[in-house]
Design brief:
Elements (H helix, E strand, L loop, with lengths): L8 E3 L1 H15 L1 H14 L8 H25 L1 E3 L14 E7 L6 E6 L11 E2 L4 H6 L7 E5 L5 E11 L3
Parallel strand pairs: 1-2, 4-5
Antiparallel strand pairs: 3-4, 3-7, 6-7
Helix pairs in contact: 1-2, 1-3, 2-3
């Protein structure tokens, strides 16, 4: 089965390593800690009214969800290489400059990448966000449309799309 560029999560080696370390911690020491909290709370007696037990079980649920999210993210990750810009279309891992409503004085530049890679250097939009999914596949000079949270449509013009380089 081949993956499309929308299926791939582009990550730098640094971001990939950080996420792998988080997954290792959550799958190992953190899992053992929450299991110990649950066991200690069980020993206190009646589980129906045991706040410590319920808090530990909730923490365990959140932790297991994060483990699944990280596992899926890392399985789809493409590490250390920017997407090819051979066809000139916007894809994850690219720095994109857009003009709102075609007004080249009202522009925004952002990195189209996983939120896991969010950086203080450049604003980051997820490929799954309304704006991200609206611009994917469009080429420089083309107009793209996406849906705002209020249900209205917004249009942007793609001014520039270049592979990100750290």
């Amino acid at each position: 089965m081949t993956q499309t560029s929308e299926d791939v999560t582009w990550l730098t080696q640094e971001a990939y390593t950080k996420l792998k370390e988080e997954l290792a911690y959550l799958s190992g020491p953190a899992r053992e800690e929450v299991t110990a909290k649950i066991a200690a709370a069980r020993e206190e007696g009646d589980l129906r009214e045991n706040g410590g037990y319920h808090a530990a079980k909730e923490e365990q649920g959140k932790q297991e969800l994060r483990i699944r999210q990280l596992t899926q993210l890392l399985e789809k990750a493409k590490v250390g290489e920017a997407p090819a810009s051979a066809d000139g279309a916007v894809a994850p891992g690219m720095v994109v400059t857009i003009a709102f409503d075609g007004d080249e004085d009202d522009t925004m530049t952002f990195l189209l990448a996983s939120r896991e890679y969010a950086s203080s250097e450049i604003e980051t939009y997820s490929p799954q966000s309304p704006l991200g999914s609206g611009v994917i596949g469009h080429k420089v000079g083309e107009d793209a449309e996406y849906e705002l949270p209020n249900g209205r449509k917004a249009s942007v013009k793609i001014l520039k799309a270049e592979p990100y380089s750290a």
